[in-house]
Every structure is written in structure tokens, then in C-alpha cells.
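Batch job 17 of 40 flagged for manual review because the log was empty.
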Amino acid sequence: MQIIQTPNAPAAIGPYAQGVVVGKMLYTSGQIALRPDGSLEDGDIVAQTKQVMANLTAIIQQAGGQLNKVVKTTVFLKNLDDFVAMNGIYGEAFGTHTPARSTVQVAKLPRDVLVEIEAIVDLS
């Protein structure tokens, strides 16, 4: 097992790692709209999703992976009415690559953000 840590994504705000590699798979922790310096991107769902995807990309790259190797994501939304806007940014980030995905509405997210996304990545 290898712990992944990059200064290009926000440090963990609790007792967990940004990502963990087991074998040839990377499991990221859920990323919220914190900038690498720890400040909150408190804009709308579009701005927050862009920051979340930047964080995920940084962690994946630190582990030696790429977005086109993401196998599955889980998206947590504060409000499913934000799905279309989030999905647009998500789709831009992944391009033609379409990993499996689950999307759920949750009652509350850390720092009262609008979106959190985690990923599982094939590093082989």
C-alpha cells in the first residue's frame, strides 16, 4: 500500500489520505471544492466542480495515472437539481472517456460545499 500526497490538491482535513494505491489501483478520497492552499472555492456548482476535478486530476497524476484510466467515480451532490451543470463540467474533464459512475444527493457535505467526487483509477 502506498499513500499518495500532492501539494497540488488540498491537504486532508481529517485522518485520511488524498489517495491510496493498492496493487495497480488508486482509490482517491472524496474531493471537495478546496483549493490546494486550503481555501474554499465558494462559487456555484460549475466553479466548485471545476475545482473538484482539478483536485482529482492532481492526485491521479501524482500517483502516475491519468483521467482516461478512471474506472469508477462516485459523485455526491447537495442538490440533484445541480446535476446538469455538474455533469457538463465532469464531461468536459473526461472527454470521450466514460467511467462508471454513481451520483447521489446527500443531506450535507464538508464545509457545506455543493459537490464531492471520489475516484477509482487503474494505474496499470
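Reviewer: the log was empty due to a logging misconfiguration, but the result itself is present. The two ends are 15 Å apart (CA to CA). Unflagging and moving on to job 18.
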